[in-house]
């Protein structure tokens, strides 16, 4: 069996098969939303001359999103006949209802878990009516905007924010969410794009875990631990998801802080996500 290797190929080098019989223009936006949420997780299959074997829909979405490089698996080991047959097989397998059945009870549990996590259920590929039917919850409105709770300063009680909370502060909006999830941006920005983004993601340096940090903060236990700050090789994928969402939701300049040890990774994934890298800014603090 041939070992599969994934290469990142410029999108302009890929050529769609002119006789592709699958009509999919109507769902390009859904795939765009999927890529923005999860990243480009399923490579396109093509020959080394750029001709696409499978992944025409993903290619259309990538072009619409303005991506420059996408992952590709080369299929030069397949004969012309195998390529034609595989192209049909891949398209036909998208008709999942003809191939396998869902366990509705288990499916409902998965959807309920996602609903509890405040995740956009339509990003699962099911449409609104299907989700309503599966959850047996006719009062669910996926398009209903977040409702603001009023807080009386006279109550004089500690205010605790939890994931999913949206704070309306006059003309400003502050959301407690996950920057790797596209739904977070929808909630805080609604239908707008940010004029500018300034962010400080984790540095993947396991801050707070050194002996010095442990001694310094020993009375405060792990309150200074930073989530996703020790992901190892998974840090690159994490940053790619963050960069993809930020780029898609910002119409102006983007400023991102990063440790020197991971700066090359940030620059790499920022470009892969379709961003234009301009320059470096260094913060020189007083000694």
UniProtKB/TrEMBL annotation:
GO terms for biological process: chromosome segregation; positive regulation of sporulation resulting in formation of a cellular spore. It comes from the Bacteria. InterPro entries: Chromosome_partition/occlusion (IPR050336), ParB/Sulfiredoxin_sf (IPR036086), ParB_N (IPR003115), SAM-dependent_MTases_sf (IPR029063). SUPFAM superfamilies: ParB/Sulfiredoxin (SSF110849), S-adenosyl-L-methionine-dependent methyltransferases (SSF53335). GO terms for cellular component: chromosome. Residues 7-92 form the ParB-like N-terminal domain. This is ParB-like N-terminal domain-containing protein. It comes from Holospora obtusa F1. The lineage of its organism: Bacteria, Pseudomonadati, Pseudomonadota, Alphaproteobacteria, Holosporales.
């Amino acid at each position: 069996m041939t070992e599969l290797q994934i290469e990142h190929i410029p999108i302009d080098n890929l050529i769609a098969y002119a006789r592709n019989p699958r009509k999919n223009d109507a769902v390009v936006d859904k795939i765009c939303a999927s890529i923005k949420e999860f990243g480009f997780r399923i490579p396109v299959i093509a020959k080394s001359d750029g001709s696409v074997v499978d992944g025409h829909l993903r290619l259309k979405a990538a072009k619409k999103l303005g991506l420059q490089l996408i992952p590709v698996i080369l299929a030069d080991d397949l004969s012309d006949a195998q390529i034609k047959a595989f192209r049909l097989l891949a398209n036909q397998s998208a008709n999942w209802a003809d191939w396998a059945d869902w366990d509705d009870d288990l499916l409902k549990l998965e959807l309920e878990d996602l609903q509890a996590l405040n995740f956009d259920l339509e990003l699962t590929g099911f449409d609104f009516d299907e989700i309503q039917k599966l959850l047996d919850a006719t009062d669910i409105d996926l398009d209903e905007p977040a409702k603001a709770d009023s807080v009386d300063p006279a109550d004089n009680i500690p205010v605790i924010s939890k994931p999913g909370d949206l704070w309306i502060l006059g003309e400003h909006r502050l959301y407690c969410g996950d920057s790797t999830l596209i739904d977070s941006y929808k909630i805080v920005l609604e239908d707008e794009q940010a004029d500018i983004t300034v962010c400080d993601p984790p540095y993947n340096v396991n801050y707070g875990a050194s002996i010095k940090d442990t001694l310094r903060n020993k009375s405060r236990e792990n309150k200074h631990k930073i989530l996703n700050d020790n992901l190892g090789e998974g840090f690159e994928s994490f940053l790619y998801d963050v960069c993809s969402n930020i780029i898609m939701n910002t119409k102006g300049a983007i400023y991102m802080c990063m440790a020197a040890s991971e700066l090359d990774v940030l620059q790499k994934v920022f470009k892969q996500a379709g961003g234009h890298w301009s320059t470096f800014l260094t913060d020189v603090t007083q000694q």
